[in-house]
Amino acid sequence: MSIGKLKIEAIFITYPMEKNLDAFFNPKTVAVIGASADAGKVGHIIFKNFAEEGFAGKVYPVNPHPAPVLGHKPVKSVLEIPEEVDLAVIVTPAKTVPKILAECGQKKVKSVVIISSGFKEIGKEGAKLENQLKELTQKYRLSVIGPNCLGVYDTNTEVDTLFLPAYRMGRPQKGNVAFVTQSGAFGSVILDWAAQEGFGVSKFVSYGNAVDVDEIDLMNYLHKDEGTKVIVMYLEGANRAKELISAGREISKSKPILCLKAGSSMRGMQATQSHTGSLAGADEIYSAAFKQAGIIRVANIEEMFDYSRALATQPPMPGNKIAIITDGGGFGVMATDYAEQNGLSVQEISEQTKKKMMKCTLPFATLKNPVDLTGSASGAMYRCSIEACMQDQNIDGLLVILLFQPPNIESDVVQHVIELRAKYKKPMVVCSAGGQYTEIHRDILERSGIPTYPTPDRAIKALAILNKYAQIKSRKA
Amino acid sequence: MSIGKLKIEAIFITYPMEKNLDAFFNPKTVAVIGASADAGKVGHIIFKNFAEEGFAGKVYPVNPHPAPVLGHKPVKSVLEIPEEVDLAVIVTPAKTVPKILAECGQKKVKSVVIISSGFKEIGKEGAKLENQLKELTQKYRLSVIGPNCLGVYDTNTEVDTLFLPAYRMGRPQKGNVAFVTQSGAFGSVILDWAAQEGFGVSKFVSYGNAVDVDEIDLMNYLHKDEGTKVIVMYLEGANRAKELISAGREISKSKPILCLKAGSSMRGMQATQSHTGSLAGADEIYSAAFKQAGIIRVANIEEMFDYSRALATQPPMPGNKIAIITDGGGFGVMATDYAEQNGLSVQEISEQTKKKMMKCTLPFATLKNPVDLTGSASGAMYRCSIEACMQDQNIDGLLVILLFQPPNIESDVVQHVIELRAKYKKPMVVCSAGGQYTEIHRDILERSGIPTYPTPDRAIKALAILNKYAQIKSRKA
């Protein structure tokens, strides 16, 4: 079953019936099994997330000890809950989990998240316990996420099984990017970072050892999720390679999928075995599989965020001809270098478009491509140059470099950029680098759906991804 | 003279007598020619920098108009100044500059910065004017930086010829990294960014069209500057290729030199011609020349800052064997991948060192390499593991991954890291990613001279550069 042994086939394979994962993200009744009165405990934090934050449903603490949890009297077992349970979250010690999972099965709980660790990842004894979970899941036809995971965070329904308090790990705002991660620690960093950066997330799932629900089930679910525009995955190893490819091929026609695959080096592969206990396969095979699946492989966390932002806000870019407009010559030169390195073309701008620009720019501006408005550029010069390029059929996308250090640039330029992006549907990204004055404007642009990068290479690479996704989207079959 | 035509020779070439540039950075008497009473004008801002900020010397406004500048009565010409002038800063329109420069020659001004633009970069007419400057410089044996530049900023003497107000472009704090840039706009972004990030700078020079002083003169000067530990350059084209190589070979024995070279693509080369009017040569030739010179070429701005911070605070790393210590498995795996990609070795840790670590870590921690202390790691576990690796002769450097999201990590870990770095002289970098709670600790680490990166690839690449510089430093002849 390991992808290492997989012969990649170009044929389309139908995959097994999709699981309905809706109860994980939109439950009406939740049981937190192991909910604790002790404020430092994981079971307390998770219960509190449901009981005292934005979650609109009902939540039951489950604990054999009778001490009330935040004023709620616990029931002894999930079996005592007098109504249907949509989601059970289990946070008890590993050895107690099989019995509890069986009770969830008897209760016909629709979905179960097992946060607890101490399974496959700790060795033989844990693997035995994990096998019991697998058997119970099949016996009772349960839907299970975990064990050894952070579980689910949904910015819309505010389902939040994350056991880390908000001061340690922020919760991101609503958005249209979904994150799916095998590693919990990786997930916690991503959430914290996204929250800090004002990066919008739709759904987040850390699925850990994947006793049942895995990345393919989640991809298929997110495919149909209206709130998700981009799917981002962190993967160490995949067990269902063929399904990954076929699901990717289908989904990538309508939604871009990004994947950060760790464990590519020999030594890194060994490390994943101690970590999630999954077998990582030869790296080249993954690359080939991703390519066939239309999954965009990213090299690092920065690319993951950078590309997500572009894909979540900009249309795909079918052609590769871009215009670069700048008020700093050096940045324009660098952007041109990076464009060539990333397969984008910075062609001479047409005479007609140049003429339009000439009317509103300075006599010593350079109107070739990159268009250098010089350090004397004003917002009005940017407006007219951007509009001329937006109207040019020979230009597929724009990189607007906005350096706010020169003296004539004022805040109006930000408004121009936002208005023109709304008026024309052409892909556009901004590069803006510097200190606080820059940050203020960068934030406004970002909040208005204009992806803004601090360096020209990151901006160019984001444009190149819009081109790459257009190619994936237009593939036949 | 263009590097494009240069046949690279492995022989050591003596270069012409070095210029004494001390008057640029440490003048006692300064004349600002074109100093203006109008607060919006460049000549006002620069005069104010000298008159009202930290500069300890004397400053004269020079302007034919008698209106006082910030209460100082201007003299009509530099010739009227009753004492020796160490530094003249010229900010008047291009066509007036030759006459003014001649007056500086007659006055035997020790150093001249020409901020004014409108020379070679605007075409033929400007090139003619620039030739006049060149002739005058030779005739009067002047030392000239510029024209078409930002000039000089020295964090120690507070010489500040930057005409951008601080709210637009911050001034960085004192430090030991010197920046030399051909592009002014690039320089302004770098300064603003450095100020924002708390990045310490010794000297900054934007030298523009380089009618006289060029990057080689500046490299040679900074070689002997005690306050500078790392030299960073932004270059579009170099005219004195042989000298660049020989100066680099000499300087890199004692100080690392980083260079961001723009204009590497065909289209980018054309763009540099409109920008600074310099001829950029074939990119491969530059790469070969840099290699021979011991100059480390960086691919982008991020690498430039990342590598500077490592080289400014950590010793060179003669071997390539590193230990990775982490509290997040996924980050450990990724770091291991990046290590292999960047020529670093993540070998199994010796039994002796493992035994030391076993005494103070959790039974389910992984003590191979990467060392995964797991999400249950405490500061004490980090302390003991780091110390064990510091004492291990088979480990050349450390990457400490500190994720602050897990619940048991407290602020004490930062103190441990700082103390151990001071106690042992081994290179160490930290990777720490997340939101505000992380930022607080990252800042403390950075201020204590521990380079701290948000992603594992950036941290690994910084360690790899410490290894690369050790190799450059140990080259023969």
Summarize the structure.
The structure is a homodimer of 477-residue chains. Chain A is an alpha/beta fold.
What are its keywords?
homodimer, 477 residues, alpha/beta, six-stranded mixed β-sheet, five-stranded parallel β-sheet, 16 strands, 15% strand, elongated, disordered N terminus
User: What oligomerization state is this entry in?
Assistant: homodimer
Report Rg of chain A.
25 Å
Strand order in the sheet with the most strands of chain A: 6-8-7-9-10-11
Strand content of chain A: 5-15%
Q: Which chains make the largest contact?
A: A-B, 78 and 79 residues
Poorly predicted runs of chain A: 1-16
Instruction: Give a count of the beta strands of chain A, DSSP E runs of length 2 or more.
Output: 16
Total number of helical segments of chain A? Answer: 16
Write the layout of secondary structure elements.
The structure is a homodimer of 477-residue chains.
Chain A: H1 22-25, E1 29-33, H2 42-52, E2 58-62, E3 87-90, H3 97-106, E4 111-114, H4 124-139, E5 144-145, E6 151-154, E7 174-181, H5 184-197, E8 201-206, H6 215-223, E9 230-235, H7 241-251, E10 257-261, H8 266-275, H9 283-293, E11 295-298, H10 301-313, E12 322-326, H11 329-341, H12 351-358, E13 371-372, H13 379-391, E14 397-401, H14 412-423, E15 428-431, H15 436-447, E16 452-453, H16 456-473
Parallel strand pairs in A: 1-2, 1-3, 3-4, 4-5, 7-8, 7-9, 9-10, 10-11, 12-13, 12-14, 14-15, 15-16
Antiparallel strand pairs in A: 6-8
